[in-house]
Design brief:
The protein has 489 residues and is an alpha/beta fold. Helix content is 53%, strand content 12%. Strands 13-12-15-14 form a four-stranded mixed sheet. Strands 3-2-4 form a three-stranded antiparallel sheet, with no helix packed on it. A two-stranded antiparallel ribbon has the order 1-5. The radius of gyration is 33 Å and the shape is elongated. The protein starts with 8 loop residues before the first strand and ends with a helix.
């Protein structure tokens, strides 16, 4: 619909030359598929070919079939025309996409692709389109040499939502590189522990039992369930072309759940004397890592290939391995583990509030809302003791005096401060912090009272100052309350 006349002639140095010849004797034009040497009208020899070339998009419009041997009916043409998906930017929908459809219908009688995935453009840090005239282009080779190809690739995938433009940022590429380093270090941790186990010989696992065994812990069941759920969500998002969301899910699972939580949860078993517990932890670690690499492979192909080649029982290229389908989900294990993790996070935050070293053993008192919650926590106190350095952990129906308090779902958590910190030193530290906050408030209030600043500064700058003032005022109240609490110890 709405097809208009199109000037297909261009004065370019490169392209398909227009197959038209002009006769200098009779003035007629001849168009031919093969090069001609005489005028088809008067048969004169005094002819010359049009010096222009076809528009780039005229040539590009033939791409879906010309690259596969057309006009010959090749096997490749039969197999790959039409194809499933075309990926392109929104700026050439009419230039390229529409013209491929036009040419496909004209010469093949069928559209060239079933779906079109339209992405945004990569712009510079100021939001400008990269161009030669502005000189603001980013050389991908230089970025790859500095950060790695996978880091650049992952940043581009996670940087935006479909159809929206992306601003290139070195910091975001660096963040992606840190993610790659996280995976590499986690893999090294696993491989070093595998080497220490006598039962893992010649790169083959002697125990080919089920992933979950009677020796599996709550953390094992939790990470396997989270892997299965993540695999299902990643697959669903890829099917919907939500590539950024699929990559984000992998980032969250690998960085937070696998590296920050599960690896830490396994260390007590790996460094312990129980061989069965150690081998079970290693088996789950290896299996979850290997499946995670397969899920991550479309986003970070080089890193995942190299690491997987080093894992026992991983045969052939990761590119030829089966995709990971989401298996069974254990909602009970996820719910119980989430509760324990929340308790651990609250204890860590309470320690941080009063400047206590994270690994310093500290008494913790728990007040639970139900017998079921207490049962879950009692059964898994080892996780709280190990990851929150909480010792002893006791249960009480009363709120203790002189303790910092925090809340997780169904649990009140108390950190008794007596004998935990040097109260005079902490009061002195907080008093200095209070003075610093008050000076900041005074400076901010001075800005907001300045008529020139309020009227001339950008609205977002003024709003930021107001938000900063509000946050500082809230912090003053919190610090004053803590000082008063310490004085009463």
């Amino acid at each position: 619909e709405n097809i208009r006349y199109w000037c297909i002639s261009r004065q370019l140095w490169w392209g398909h030359r227009i197959p038209a010849w002009y006769c200098d004797d009779c003035g007629e034009m001849t168009v031919a598929e093969e090069e001609i040497h005489e005028c088809s009208h008067c048969h004169g020899k005094n002819i010359h070919q049009d010096e222009d070339v076809l528009d780039t998009w005229f040539s590009s419009a033939l791409w879906p079939f010309s690259t596969m041997g057309w006009p010959k009916e090749t096997d490749e043409l039969k197999k790959f025309y039409p194809t499933n998906v075309l990926v392109t930017g929104y700026d050439i929908i009419f230039f390229w996409v529409a013209r491929m459809v036009m040419m496909g219908l004209k010469f093949r009688g069928e559209i060239p692709f079933r779906k079109v995935f339209i992405h945004g453009l990569v712009r510079d840090e100021f939001g400008r389109k990269m161009s030669k005239s502005l000189g603001n282009g980013v050389d991908p080779v230089e970025v790859i040499e500095k950060y790695g190809a996978d880091s650049l690739r992952f940043m581009l995938v996670t940087g935006n939502t479909p159809g929206n433009d992306l601003r290139f940022s070195d910091k975001r590429v660096e963040s992606a590189r840190n993610f790659a380093n996280k995976i590499w270090n986690a893999s090294r941790f696993l491989l070093m522990n595998l080497q220490e186990m006598e039962r893992w010989k010649d790169g083959k696992v002697e125990n080919n039992s089920s992933l979950l065994t009677p020796h599996s812990s709550l953390s094992d069941r939790w990470i396997i369930s989270r892997l299965n759920k993540t695999a299902k969500q990643v697959t669903e998002n890829l099917d919907k072309f939500e590539l950024g969301e699929a990559a984000r899910l992998m980032y969250e699972f690998i960085w937070s759940e696998f590296c920050d939580w599960y690896i830490e949860l396994t260390k007590a078993r790996l460094y312990g004397e129980d061989l069965q517990a150690k081998s079970t932890a290693l088996y789950v670690l290896m299996t979850v890592l290997e499946k995670s690499l397969r899920l991550l492979h479309p986003f970070m192909p080089f890193l995942t290939e190299v690491i997987r080649q080093k894992l026992p029982n991983a045969e052939g290229s990761i590119m030829l391995a089966d995709w990971v389908d989401g298996g069974e989900v254990d909602e009970v294990a996820e719910s119980h583990m989430t509760l324990i993790m929340e308790v651990i996070k609250v204890i860590r935050n309470l320690k941080n509030e009063v400047g206590v070293e994270p690994r310093k053993k500290s008494e913790v008192i728990l007040k639970v809302s139900s017998g079921e919650v207490e049962k879950i926590l009692q059964k898994n106190l080892k996780y709280i003791s190990e990851l929150a350095a909480a010792e002893p952990v006791t249960f009480s129906t009363e709120k203790p005096d002189h303790a910092l308090a925090g809340v997780a779902e169904g649990v009140e958590i108390f950190l008794p401060l007596k004998n935990l910190i040097d109260t005079e030193k902490e009061i002195s530290r907080l008093t200095k912090e209070l003075e610093k906050i008050r000076k900041g408030i005074s400076a901010t209030e001075g800005k907001l009272k300045n008529k020139n600043f309020v009227e001339k500064a950008p609205a977002e700058v003024v709003q930021a100052e107001k938000e900063k003032l509000s946050a500082a005022q809230e912090k003053i109240s919190s610090v004053e309350s803590r000082i008063e609490q310490l004085k009463n110890l």
